[in-house]
Amino acid sequence: MPRLNVIVASTRPGRVGRRIGDWFTEVATRHGAFDDVRLVDLAEVALPFHNEPHHPSEGRYVYRHTRRWSETTAAADAFVFVMPEYNYGFNAPLKNAIDHLYREWQHKPVGFVSYGMTSGGLRAVQMIKQVVTTLKMVPVNEAVTIFLRQALDESGALIPDAGRDAAADVMLDEIARLSAALSTLRVPA
Fold this sequence. Notes:
The protein is of the alpha/beta class.
């Protein structure tokens, strides 16, 4: 069975993204379509602003942080981005993490768990689809959209929601199908 990397995109102190990422990782593990579900927190990965001297398509990484990031990403068969919406768009740490690499992303499905106040992150998801398709990733239409004003309790904890869990399962079903279908196109990075 394939490996799923759940990538928490927000690196901001006080963020809610890690709590959402933890919730989704638990759901994905219970779902059972992926033998290996890994939470990858960009705050812990701590990539500097893209500083490699060579183009990512060459795969000639000079820095240890990029080589580690490459290994983590190449080992995955599918991704879910747990991503906030900032000013109607996706956040810079996620774009930076994507831009560090090239071949490692190709021919892999990607799903989105977005969150925000007014739009639940929908605008950010639409924007990032242009980026991921350029890298030959396949975004799934099914998604999880979290409207923070309704999703968090007074302490900032995520309120359990059967509808959110069901949306996650539907998205995971599609990611698993695409991961299997795309597997013949993937070559080691």
